[in-house]
């Protein structure tokens, strides 16, 4: 496809000199309005039925939404029925406003009020499209014609409300396709609607400015919002709302900058379901605020329940990398990330501010667990592997063994090509280091310490064919190493050994790890035992057994010649 530079026209920046929003910081959450049951629902392959709507409505109430757009009752019978059900069954909490959408057409407005009959309080949301594209190509109307649709709609909304004084009414108007509307014209329409509704005289009015299609960078949207706030009548008596869509992938960013630019209220959907690329994602924006120390005034701590209900009602799976909600978002595969997370978590005290590398928020705040943080694949390093063994099996490895074992795990991951779970890591560790060859199994030892050091007598092997070694050294390991050198006529150096007492939940009390150099070859082994000395002696025998396995002919001869058996 050849790029045709005439096909797409760049969005013109807003002519504005007194931008204030870039210096602002959001310190208070906006008023939220969830439009899952209307805008989100309209975008579903299979729109929700009454039962699904009720389930999602109850979730939204539970999360703390005080304004919930429940449908477009004049356009959809299930939406009408759902609205009636909520009202007739008294299912709307006293502090929650339901909101319903209608086009600015007399018969639709009338039907909308029928749906709302008997409500304690409600927001009637009326809209018509105002952009140049819609004016010229869809409606074939000039500015005046479009403004008249809005004004007539506003009059009819007001008249119906006046007939039902028992309900506490809020009026909302959206100049649909606002981002494609000349700003002076948008302000003209809003002012004309205000002249009907008179927010200055006590009528609660919301002007909802939609990025029906996201057409420009979020800073342009912020400019548009600040411009409108500066130029419309009765600003102080109005609630300015924004309703962004995500066509350029910046729906959340645009809403955030809009709040910096003066918006009081934000409409969106959980997880961002909505037409085309979706609506502004309420979960992401609320959690962005939360992660900056701003109370979102929503309770999103049960994220698993949120994703379950949204998935069941929308039949759309949550992307595993969805901000804050995805299955993989508190998971680090990269070794250096795992290492850094582990170090930060180890240093952190419970009431410290959250400064953990690679984790913008504490997973526990969303009902997730640290255990989910580290998962292993071929990109993982020693830190992650060691973390998993420690976390799930209480096994701490010395650094030298972490490095060595992570290569074993990496090889396995490269062969399998995917993630390695913690059981496999443990199995690999057992097979590679802990396995005891019965011919080299420690049976017993006797240590005698005198002025020259330790005299060790060690018995190992099969019950029916036990072997005995005897040697001297500064400690038990050196004494057994000397006995092996002597017996097998090999040169043996212990390069590293470490012993650990084990935590609860393990059968053994101690883990010993050893690395030896024997006739120029390195061998490492580990052993679980009741006490550290048994562990270290067994680890040494297992390491020697590896050398024997690797060099069967020499070893068999030496063993036959050197080891006494009875
Ligand atoms: O995206 C939009 O413009 C809308 C309006 C009806 C508010 O959903
Ligand atoms: Zn929308």
Question: Main β-sheet, in a few words?
Answer: 8 strands, parallel, barrel
Helix content range of the residues, please? 40-55%
User: Would you identify the CATH architecture of the largest domain?
Assistant: Alpha-Beta Barrel
Q: Report the C-alpha radius of gyration, rounded.
A: 36 Å
Tally of distinct domains: 3
Topology, number of strands: 15
Sequence of strands across the biggest β-sheet: 1-2-3-4-5-6-7-8
Distinct compounds present: 3-methyl-2-oxobutanoic acid, zinc ion
Structural description of this entry:
The chain has 566 residues and is α/β, with parallel strands linked by helices. The protein folds into three domains: 14-311, TIM Barrel (Alpha-Beta Barrel); 335-432, no CATH class; 438-560, Double Stranded RNA Binding Domain (2-Layer Sandwich). Helices cover 41% and strands 20% of the residues. The chain is built from 18 helices and 15 strands. A hairpin with a 2-residue loop joins strand 9 and strand 10. The mean pLDDT is 92.
Task: Provide key terms for this protein.
TIM Barrel, binds 3-methyl-2-oxobutanoic acid, 3 domains, Double Stranded RNA Binding Domain, 566 residues, alpha/beta, 4-stranded antiparallel sheet
Question: Could you give the topology of this structure?
Answer:
Layout: E1 31-34, H1 36-42, H2 50-63, E2 67-71, H3 77-88, E3 97-103, H4 106-116, E4 121-129, H5 132-139, H6 143-162, E5 168-176, H7 183-197, E6 204-211, H8 218-231, E7 238-244, H9 251-260, E8 265-268, H10 282-290, H11 303-314, H12 335-347, H13 382-393, H14 399-416, H15 422-434, E9 442-450, E10 453-462, E11 465-473, H16 476-488, E12 492-501, E13 510-518, E14 521-529, H17 532-550, H18 552-562, E15 564-565
Parallel strand pairs: 1-2, 1-8, 2-3, 3-4, 4-5, 5-6, 6-7, 7-8
Antiparallel strand pairs: 9-10, 10-11, 11-15, 12-13, 13-14
Helix pairs in contact: 2-11, 4-6, 6-7, 7-8, 8-9, 12-13, 13-14, 16-17, 17-18
The structure holds 3-methyl-2-oxobutanoic acid and zinc ion.
């Amino acid at each position: 496809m050849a790029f045709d530079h005439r096909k797409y026209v760049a969005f013109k920046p807003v002519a504005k000199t007194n931008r204030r929003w870039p210096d602002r910081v959001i310190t208070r959450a906006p008023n939220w309005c969830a439009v899952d049951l209307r805008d989100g629902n309209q975008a579903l392959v299979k729109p929700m039925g009454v039962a699904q709507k009720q389930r999602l409505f109850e979730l939204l109430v539970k999360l703390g939404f005080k304004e919930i757009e429940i449908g477009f009752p004049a356009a959809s019978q299930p939406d009408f029925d759902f609205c009636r059900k909520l009202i007739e069954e008294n299912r709307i909490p006293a502090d929650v406003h339901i909101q319903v959408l209608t086009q600015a057409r007399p018969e639709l407005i009338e039907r909308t009020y029928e749906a709302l009959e008997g409500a304690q309080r409600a927001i009637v949301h009326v809209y018509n499209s105002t952009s140049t594209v819609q004016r010229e190509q869809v409606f074939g109307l000039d500015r005046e014609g479009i403004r008249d649709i809005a004004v007539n709609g506003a009059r009819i909304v007001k008249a119906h409300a006046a007939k039902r004084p028992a309900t506490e009414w809020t009026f909302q108007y959206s100049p649909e396709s606002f981002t494609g509307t000349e700003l002076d014209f948008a302000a003209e329409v809003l002012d004309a609607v205000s002249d009907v509704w008179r927010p200055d005289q006590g009528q609660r009015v919301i002007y909802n400015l939609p990025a029906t299609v996201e057409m420009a960078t979020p800073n342009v949207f912020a400019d548009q919002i600040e411009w409108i706030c500066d130029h419309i009548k009765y600003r102080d008596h109005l609630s300015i709302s924004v309703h962004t869509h995500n066509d350029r992938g910046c729906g959340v960013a645009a809403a955030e900058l809009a709040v910096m630019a003066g918006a009081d209220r934000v409409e969106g959907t959980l997880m961002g379901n909505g037409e085309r690329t979706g609506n502004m994602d309420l979960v992401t924006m609320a959690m962005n605020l939360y992660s900056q120390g701003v109370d979102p005034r929503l309770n999103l701590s049960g994220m698993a329940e949120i994703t379950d209900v949204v998935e069941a009602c929308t039949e759309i799976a949550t992307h595993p990398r969805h901000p804050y909600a995805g299955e993989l978002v508190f998971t680090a595969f990269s070794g250096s990330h795992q290492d850094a997370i582990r170090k930060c978590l180890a240093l952190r005290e419970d009431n410290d501010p959250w400064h953990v590398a690679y984790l913008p928020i504490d997973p526990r705040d969303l009902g997730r667990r640290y255990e989910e943080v580290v998962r292993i694949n071929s990109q993982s390093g020693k830190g992650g592997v060691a973390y998993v063994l420690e976390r799930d099996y209480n096994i701490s490895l010395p650094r030298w063994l972490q490095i060595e074992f992570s290569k074993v795990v990496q090889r396995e991951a490269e062969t399998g090509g995917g993630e390695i779970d913690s059981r496999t890591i443990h199995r690999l560790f057992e097979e590679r280091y802990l396995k005891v060859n019965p011919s080299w199994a420690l049976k017993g030892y006797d240590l005698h310490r005198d002025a020259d050091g330790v005299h060790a007598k060690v018995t190992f092997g099969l019950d029916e064919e036990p072997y005995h070694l005897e040697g001297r050294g500064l400690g038990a390991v050196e004494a057994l190493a000397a006995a092996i050198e002597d017996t097998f006529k090999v040169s043996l150096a212990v390069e590293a050994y470490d012993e650990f007492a084990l935590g609860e939940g393990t059968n053994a009390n101690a883990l010993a790890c050893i690395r030896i150099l024997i006739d120029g070859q390195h061998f490492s082994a580990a052993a679980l035992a009741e006490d550290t000395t048994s562990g270290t002696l067994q680890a040494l025998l297992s390491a020697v057994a590896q050398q024997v396995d690797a060099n069967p002919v020499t070893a068999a001869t030496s063993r036959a010649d050197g080891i006494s058996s009875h």
